[in-house]
């Protein structure tokens, strides 16, 4: 495969990833109304839908990295970068799952955690959070990730 074809395939995959993200954002906004205009609909499956969207997007990203790694024509540097990015993605997925399990063990009905390079975002199914609850969540995050609590964002959502 020539370099030009590789670049076209790579650009196409990135464009699809961006398109997936945009569609996910526009189709799953909490403030969007259903087609019938029924404002009594709640987003009780918000957490399940968000996890499904996140898993779908991550599966595409993993497949993208595996394609780069498995391609014999890929340079050693590109393979090394893809392997490092894939390892970081897998570590982030593992951290998110551990944090979600531990936070639910604190007594919250549900939560969604996203771990980025610097920030950690936590969405909790709760109408309001008390200071002790916030402290418990921050303690779990700090002990599990070693990241500073200044980079943790906690958002309660009453669904």
SSE layout and pairings?
Layout: H1 3-27, H2 46-70, H3 76-105, E1 111-115, E2 120-125, H4 131-145, E3 152-157
Parallel strand pairs: 2-3
Antiparallel strand pairs: 1-2
Helix pairs in contact: 1-2, 2-3, 3-4
Q: What does it look like?
A:
By secondary structure, the protein is mainly α. It is 60% helix and 11% strand. The protein has 4 helices and 3 strands. The chain has a 3-stranded mixed beta sheet with strand order 1-2-3, with helices on both faces. Helix 4 links the parallel strand 2 and strand 3. Helix 1 (3-27) packs antiparallel against helix 2, helix 2 runs antiparallel to helix 3 (76-105) and helix 3 runs antiparallel to helix 4 (131-145). The model is unreliable at 37-41 (pLDDT under 50).
Defining key terms:
three-stranded mixed β-sheet, single chain, mainly alpha, 4 helices, 159 residues, 3 strands
Residue share in β-strands: 5-15%
List segments where confidence is low: pLDDT < 50 over at least 5 consecutive residues. 37-41
Q: What's the alpha carbon Rg, rounded to whole Å?
A: 19 Å
Give the fraction of residues assigned to helices: 55-70%
Number of helical segments?
Answer: 4
- Spatial strand sequence of the major β-sheet: 1-2-3
What composes the largest sheet?
3 strands, mixed
Gap between N and C termini: 51 Å
Which class of secondary structure composition applies to the elements? Answer: mainly alpha
Order of helices and strands: HHHEEHE
The residue-averaged pLDDT reads 84
Q: How many beta-strand elements?
A: 3
């Amino acid at each position: 495969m020539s370099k030009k074809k590789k670049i076209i395939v790579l650009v196409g995959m990135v464009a699809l990833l961006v398109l997936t993200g945009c569609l996910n954002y526009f189709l799953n906004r909490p403030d969007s109304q259903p087609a019938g205009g029924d404002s009594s609909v709640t987003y009780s499956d918000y957490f399940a839908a968000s996890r499904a969207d996140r898993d779908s997007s991550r599966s595409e990203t993993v497949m993208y990295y595996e394609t780069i790694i498995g391609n014999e024509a890929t340079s050693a540097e590109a393979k090394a970068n893809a392997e490092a990015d894939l390892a970081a993605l897998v570590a982030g997925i593992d951290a998110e799952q551990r944090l979600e399990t531990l936070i639910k063990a604190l007594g919250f009905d549900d939560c969604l955690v996203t771990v980025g390079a610097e920030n950690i975002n936590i969405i909790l199914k709760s109408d309001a959070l008390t200071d002790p609850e916030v402290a418990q969540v921050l303690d779990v995050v700090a002990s599990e990730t070693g990241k500073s609590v200044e980079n943790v964002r906690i958002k309660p959502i009453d669904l």
